[in-house]
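A reminder from the course coordinator: this example appears on the midterm review sheet, so study it carefully.

Given structure:
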């Protein structure tokens, strides 16, 4: 059964709440629980509390059902009612998202590691360390303009021709195994 409305995730120990809205509350809870169990939830305050207290210390309940058109207004009302943006787990005042919220560089790097679990180290021709790209080939593409495919092929030694080189070493993390990939790229 699909319910549209406002829900709460409440910590039974410290009574802190996270208020959210959804067109399908039960499906949204499944997503929250999956992300929290996998330590990948977008809300680091809620994730830290989940990790500290454990799943059994949280309860999920529906505050009210409402029409889709009223979701933003009702979420704002209930976040203010519970004061959950100050004393709870909400990152903003609610409504249409986290407008105005700015992630720290540490949070951005953590999200990159989750989404792109490769770290590529860059060295010069004398093997002096230049920098670390936490987002892997995606991050190099954004910053330097090289295609992801080009970076990965060079890290895997499938492209060897070059006149001027920058050396990249990638560490792919898959469970507990670490694969070292060494490559070069023309600049």
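Designed residues:
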């Amino acid at each position: 059964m699909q319910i549209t409305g406002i829900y709460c995730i409440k910590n039974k120990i410290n009574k802190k709440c996270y208020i959210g809205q959804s067109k399908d509350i039960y499906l949204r809870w499944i997503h929250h629980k999956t992300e929290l169990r996998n330590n990948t939830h977008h809300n680091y305050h809620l994730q830290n509390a989940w990790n500290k207290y454990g799943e059994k210390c949280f309860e999920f309940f529906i505050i009210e059902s409402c029409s889709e058109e009223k979701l933003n207004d009702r979420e704002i009302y209930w976040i203010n009612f519970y004061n959950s943006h100050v004393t709870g787990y909400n990152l903003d005042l609610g409504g249409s998202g986290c407008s105005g919220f700015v992630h720290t560089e540490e949070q951005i790097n953590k999200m990159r590691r989750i989404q792109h679990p490769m770290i590529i180290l860059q060295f010069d021709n004398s093997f002096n360390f230049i920098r670390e790209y936490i987002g892997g080939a995606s991050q190099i593409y954004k910053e330097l303009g090289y295609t992801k495919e080009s970076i990965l092929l060079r890290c895997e030694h499938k492209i060897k021709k070059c006149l001027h080189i920058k050396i990249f070493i990638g560490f792919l993390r898959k469970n507990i195994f670490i694969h070292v990939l060494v490559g070069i790229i023309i600049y």
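The radius of gyration is 22 Å. Residues 161-165, 171-187 have pLDDT under 50 and may be disordered.
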